[in-house]
Design brief:
This protein is α+β, with helices and mostly antiparallel strands. The protein is 40% helix and 22% strand. The chain folds into 3 domains: 180 residues, DNA ligase, ATP-dependent, N-terminal domain (DNA ligase i, domain 1), CATH 1.10.3260; 194 residues, D-amino Acid Aminotransferase, Chain A, domain 1 (2-Layer Sandwich), CATH 3.30.470.30; 127 residues, OB fold (Dihydrolipoamide Acetyltransferase, E2P), CATH 2.40.50. The structure holds adenosine monophosphate (AMP).
């Protein structure tokens, strides 16, 4: 396949807004590829230089690339460069390292791009910068692969969860067809996407979602790991499926020493710990992952604790379709009960609340509530795993209220909450009708009506005077509100009679709190 054809495809993909047309164009292109062209072609289409599971990196900065492009002589007329030429050229660039590497990379990249026409240079520049701008996101690429292979898109998506590399999935789909895709499953030393959790407002919600019985585990604030072991070989991947074996020699040693099975895949969390095994902030742990040289020193400086909470495969047998209760039993067997996440299947709500309080008191973020009958769903975020976190509070100003209905008829009961913005105004961050007693509703209604400045029959806009303390479990980015943020599971915990609007939480403070969520945990996949 010539790069010229790839470039034409990209131009057409960019030009059409139709999803269906994009899928058709990409599918037709995929069908025309030779087997050995598939990995690079699919990687390039998804804006990657190498396939996702390929550990090679180019290490060419934007500035270096600009320098290379600037130094090129006018391009040749005919486009004879092929995708395989590009793949080989990029491999040669990735290969060089050490002193003088930059010079060598510039030369090799110059050689490659020197052979490309102007149009080809432009598309290769986009590949190199990871900015394809062809509107072919992962879901559409999966559909294109399915279409090219005559397979159900669901089957391709499923394979992608297990292989987390569309280039590899495309190779299987296009060379082995539907049976090949069907055979894709858990495989040792091929990391699969971890199962994720949804946020719940409180324990009772989790209780309800799981039908009255749920397992609670401490939610550790560290880094997710997936550990694969066969014989005495141990390898570890992060939540984003980058290999972190080299950063965690102590965890490797634990696994080699303690796990009692021929082969296993385990899911867990590593946490940096200080004196008395108290968890340290997430940044401490990152020091460990950033260190490339002298890992041994990092191991001594930042000791980690390992907490295991799932068993995905044991002795060659995948357990992902087994209920979580069974997988936990397998985990207990394999570990001999060591290094497990603290866990309780509470008999009643009070026992659950006590366990939650214990997790917080020990310095953790909260608990995970897991449905006992749930399979392991790679890459999916759902209600089978619910996280319940410590609530935070913000002091918000009520800027408007909606009229209630049903039992709340006659009251102003749904409050529009805002924080102070930089311009001296108030920026909305959410609404809530939770937290007040009936009596407080009645009083608040009278108070807000006296502050009304506008009324459209449903929403009463009020002068921003009343401050309430609002508990929430997470700050979310939100396009809906001008502030750009929304408080999840907001409920009023107190009416702050002692505070005026000038003492309310500011947008700047909220932004900082939002950022802190990422510094500690809750990074989205
Ligand atoms: P979040 O990152 O806020 O979506 O929370 C989910 C993350 O919590 C997981 O990806 C794990 O890294 C982490 N975690 C900590 N303890 C547990 C546990 N017991 N079970 C599952 N995940 C846990």
């Amino acid at each position: 396949m010539r790069v010229a054809e790839f470039q034409v495809l990209c131009r057409r993909l960019e030009a059409t807004p139709s999803r269906l047309a994009k899928v058709e164009l990409a599918a037709e292109f995929l069908q025309r590829l030779d087997v050995d062209e598939i990995p690079s072609a699919v990687a390039f289409l998804s804006g990657r230089v190498f396939p996702a599971s390929d550990p090679r990196v180019l290490e060419v900065s934007w500035a270096t690339l600009a320098e290379v492009l600037h130094a090129l002589v006018p391009p040749p007329a005919g486009g004879s460069l092929t995708l395989l030429d590009v793949a080989r050229g990029l491999a040669a660039v990735a290969e060089v390292s050490g002193p003088g590497a930059r010079r060598a990379k510039v030369e090799r990249l110059g050689e490659l791009l020197g052979r490309a026409t102007a149009d080809e240079r432009e598309i290769l520049r986009r590949v190199l910068l990871g900015e394809m701008r062809i509107g072919l996101h992962e879901g559409l690429l999966e559909e294109a692969i399915a279409r090219a292979a005559g397979a159900d898109p669901g089957l391709v998506r499923r394979a992608a969860l297990f292989r987390s590399d569309l280039a590899e999935v495309a190779r299987i789909a296009l060379t082995e067809g539907v049976p090949g895709l069907q055979a894709v499953g858990v495989r040792l030393f091929v990391p699969l996407l971890p199962m994720l959790a949804e946020l719940a407002g409180d324990l009772s919600e989790a209780w309800e979602a799981h039908g009255g019985r749920t397992a609670l585990e401490f939610k550790y604030d560290g880094a997710r790991i997936q550990l694969h072991k066969a014989g005495d070989q141990v390898r570890i991947w992060s939540r984003r499926l980058t290999e972190v074996t080299g950063s965690l020699p102590d965890v490797v040693a634990i696994a080699a020493r303690e796990l009692r099975a021929g082969s296993v895949i385990l899911d867990g969390e590593v946490v940096a710990v200080g004196p008395g095994d108290r968890p340290l902030p997430f940044q401490e742990l990152m020091r460990r992952f950033r260190r490339v040289h002298d890992v041994d020193a990092a191991v001594r400086e930042v000791p980690v604790a390992l907490y295991l909470f799932d068993c995905i495969l044991v002795d060659g047998r995948p357990l992902i379709d087994e209920p979580y209760g069974k997988r936990w039993e397998a985990l207990e067997q394999v570990t001999g009960g060591r290094r497990l996440a603290r866990r309780l299947v509470p008999g009643d709500a009070a026992a659950g609340e006590a366990f939650f309080a214990e997790a917080l008191a020990a310095g953790h973020e909260g608990v995970m509530a897991k449905a006992l009958d749930s399979p392991y769903a790679p890459g999916s975020r759902g209600k089978r795993w619910l996280k319940v976190k410590r609530a935070e509070t913000a002091d918000c100003v009520i800027v408007a209220a909606d009229r209630g209905s049903g039992r709340r008829r006659g009251w102003l009961s749904n409050y529009h909450l805002a924080v102070r913005d930089e311009a001296g105004g108030f920026a909305p961050v959410g609404k809530t009708f939770k937290g007040l007693t009936d009596r407080e509703f009645v009083e608040m209604t009278a108070r807000l009506q006296a502050l009304a400045v506008d009324d459209d029959g449903y929403t009463v806009t009020v002068s921003p005077e009343v401050v309430v303390e609002v508990a929430y479990n997470e700050i979310q980015r939100s396009p809906r509100y001008r502030s750009g943020f929304a408080l999840r599971f907001a409920r009023v915990t107190r009416i702050r009679e002692d505070k005026g609007p000038a003492q309310a939480t500011t947008l700047g403070e909220l932004r900082a709190l939002y950022e802190r969520q990422f510094a500690s945990k809750g990074r989205r996949g």
